[in-house]
Write a sequence for this structure.
């Protein structure tokens, strides 16, 4: 039985499914500036009009399916108000054993995968009306099979789980290194080698990712910033815009008609 917090809105096709290691978003993209995620980002056009992408300072490219590896700065423009977006956490999958569709950067020609994502979206919209995603396996729904797990040192896995479980906490690399009995320099080196990210970038990403849980809350942006672990609204706005290419107020405003399914929530749904 899956534990899911569900917040509904009259959004029709718009929804977001949050799990600890995956996100599926069907909603507004907005006019985002450059963004950079801590996981693999996949963008699919819902009805066949090609989206556009620019990787770093490169030329604009277009396609119905766009893929961006972790920590790659990019701009995306959607041809329709709705965009289908998957996010696969960097530390959760083995980069050397990923399906072919995730081993690319930019437009990808894979009509079968595009059809699968659109069909998955339709299935989730129907399930959202019943207020539950219980029994739906994310990887099998979108990829047809579980994605291979990244092999991790037990000490690094312990730190990853700790930060992921409480991203608002003031984790320091020095304390994490001491807690897993590693020297500070060895910890930093091993963490990056194991995850592909520096500890600082990982912590910043997990904190920014946690904003997604608050997009349907009625709290003020200042309260959300403090709950998410940011010292003040200015730091909050700057950090969120660096990662999502949008201000927090734009993200919240664009989520007003979004059905949110949070697998880390407290309402039992079966």
């Amino acid at each position: 039985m899956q534990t899911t917090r569900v917040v509904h809105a009259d959004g029709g096709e718009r929804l977001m499914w949050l799990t600890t290691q995956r996100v599926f978003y069907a909603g507004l993209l907005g006019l985002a500036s450059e963004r950079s995620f801590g996981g693999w980002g996949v963008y699919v056009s819902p009805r066949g009009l090609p989206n556009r992408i620019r990787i770093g300072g490169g030329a604009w490219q277009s396609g119905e399916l766009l893929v961006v590896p972790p920590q790659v700065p990019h701009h995306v423009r959607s041809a329709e108000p709705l965009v289908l977006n998957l996010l696969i956490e960097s530390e959760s999958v083995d980069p050397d054993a990923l399906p072919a569709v995730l081993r690319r950067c930019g437009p990808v020609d894979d009509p079968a995968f595009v059809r699968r994502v659109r069909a998955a979206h339709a299935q989730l919209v129907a399930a959202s009306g019943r207020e539950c995603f219980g029994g739906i396996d994310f990887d099998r729904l979108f990829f047809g099979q579980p994605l291979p797990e990244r092999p991790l040192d037990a000490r690094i896995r312990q730190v990853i789980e700790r930060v992921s479980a409480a991203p608002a906490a003031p984790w320091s690399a020095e304390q994490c290194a001491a807690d897993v009995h590693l020297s500070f320099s060895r910890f930093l080196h091993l963490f990056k080698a194991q995850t592909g990210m520096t500890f600082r970038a990982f912590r910043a990403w997990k904190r920014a990712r946690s904003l997604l849980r608050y997009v349907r809350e009625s709290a003020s942006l200042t309260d959300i910033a403090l709950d998410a672990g940011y010292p003040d609204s200015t730091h909050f706005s700057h950090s969120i815009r660096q990662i999502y290419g949008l201000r927090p107020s734009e993200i919240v405003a664009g989520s007003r008609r979004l059905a949110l399914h949070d697998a880390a929530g407290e309402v039992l749904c079966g």
Q: What stands out?
A: Residues 6-10, 266-270 have pLDDT under 50 and may be disordered.
